[in-house]
Amino acid sequence: MVSNKTKVNWTFIAVLLIVVIIAGIVVIGLKCRGGQMVEVTLTPEREIAGTMYVGGAVNNPGYYPIFAGDTLENIITAAGGLREGANIGDVELSIGAAIEEETAQKIDINHAEAWLLEALPCIGKTTAQAIVDYRNQHGFFHDIYELLNVPGISESILDKTKDLITVNS
């Protein structure tokens, strides 16, 4: 049989526990409600003002969109930055209207990594690595026809790729 004193103790503990839980809920509710509002603003999408050809001493020559407020630094960064040891004066810029038809950018065989060369027709992983190895051993290519010196490159392969490649030193 349970004594009255034990019943009172358990009742007191139960009431105390309920009071602590309610107090905790009130405190948490006040902290959550008291936060400051956060304002989120989205910057408007920039409108393309035209296109520009960036060539010469940049890593990825080609046509790039220009936006109002772009600086020369923004444009050169979009073209992969300056080549190592190049001067800003060696960059070629040509501003024109929007390009009517998409002009494919050529792959520079003097700077392209093997994975990029693999994108060329008839160039697999082994041949792409052979091009990089040849370039590392013999220096930059002076024209695209020097690819014929690379093991695995035939005239038919060169014919299929010559309109897609370039040599920039």
Set down the secondary structure blueprint.
Layout: H1 4-33, E1 48-56, E2 62-67, H2 72-78, E3 91-96, E4 107-108, H3 114-117, H4 125-138, H5 155-161, E5 165-166
- Per CATH, the architecture of one domain is Orthogonal Bundle
Q: Describe the largest sheet.
A: 3 strands, antiparallel
Helix content: 25-40%
First CA to last CA: what distance?
A: 100 Å
**Strand element count:** 5
Helix and strand run: HEEHEEHHHE
Radius of gyration: 34 Å
| Count, helices | 5
Structural class: alpha+beta
**What name goes with the CATH superfamily of one domain?**
AF1531-like domain
- According to CATH, what is the topology of one domain? DNA polymerase, domain 1
> Mean pLDDT, rounded to whole units?
81
- Strand share of the residues? 5-15%
Extract low-pLDDT stretches: 97-101
Q: In what order do the strands lie side by side in the largest sheet?
A: 2-1-3
CATH class of one domain: Mainly Alpha
What is the overall shape? Answer: elongated
Description:
The protein is of the alpha+beta class. Among the domains are: 49 residues, no CATH class; 60 residues, AF1531-like domain (DNA polymerase, domain 1). 37% of the residues lie in helices and 15% in strands. The protein contains five helices and five strands; from the N terminus they run αββαββαααβ. About 3% of the residues have low confidence.
